Amino acid sequence: MWGIIATWRMAKEGLEKSAISLEQGGTSCDAIEQAIMEVENFPYFKSVGYGGLPNEEMEVELDAAYMDGDTLDIGAVAAIKDYANPISIAKRLSKEKVNCVLVAEGAEKFAHKEGFERKNMLTDRAKIFYRKRIKEIKEQELKPYSGHDTVGMVCLDRQGKLTAATSTSGLFMKRKGRVGDSPIVGSGFYADSKVGGATATGLGEDLMKGCISYEIVRLMKDGHHPQAACEIAVNQLDKELKERRQKAGDLSVIAMNNKGEWGVATNIDGFSFAVATENEKPTVYLVKNTDGKCICEVASQEWLDNYLTVRMAPIEE
């Protein structure tokens, strides 16, 4: 049995390619890296990699993480600038016994030493979005933070190995040096080949408060199906935050167990994800939360076509 599940429609093309590799016996280590690299390299996705939206100083700072479910090895980078594929750097760091989580200048020095590709990740398109947001903030008193669509994946190969990985440019207009949940083990991602894996997307500051990815894996270990585990974790954290803080940020999660069964949950409308397994061709779903239960509907071709049309449309300042 093999399977791969990913947050958001933007993962579709990478997931399709990795599904072919997994079907042919490829490893989850390689499949998950290649699938995320596809997202990182596409300039029209505003929340990941090249073309990612910048911080308040118009710099693109990237976070990424990788976890091996067999060994529990982790690697992560945070607030790294000017490197093309942070997921590959995170994966490389997972081979280190210590110093496996690096940030900012330290992460960049490691990447340079290891020969990773340097690249200016700030595109002209992203600069326009930045300048437009500055203007909107001045004219409408909007909060600067907007957009936090992390690509997160869980992957299972025919050998039974599970991996989890994330990549993001974080909140649009975030403060320099801000780090969300994505590169934090147990919050943004977690994988255990004996049980399953999970990853999260949304408001990192709130997702971290529940260590939500680890919580989902723990629930699966206790016997819950991935769908039930996701719903329990999201509903409990959403309730807890609202009781203690009067509101909860966006919380969306995906999971897969070591049988290739998957689950998803969210507290928002508009969450999408992609999944492929030995028994299911690559499919994009839209998710609705109805009284704590998540209903998944296959995205129509019209919706899929419109998704890219909107993101690739010309923009004017």
Automatic annotation (TrEMBL):
UniProt-recorded name of the protein: N4-(Beta-N-acetylglucosaminyl)-L-asparaginase
Marked site: Cleavage: D149, T150
Gene Ontology molecular function: any one: hydrolase activity, acting on carbon-nitrogen (but not peptide) bonds, in linear amides
Active site: residue positions: T150 (nucleophile)
Cited SUPFAM superfamilies: N-terminal nucleophile aminohydrolases (Ntn hydrolases)
Source species taxonomy: Bacteria, Bacillati, Bacillota, Erysipelotrichia, Erysipelotrichales
Xref: Pfam families: Asparaginase_2
List of residues binding substrate: R178, V179, G180, D181, T201, G202, L203, G204
Coiled-coil features, chain-numbered ranges: none
GO terms for cellular component: cytoplasm
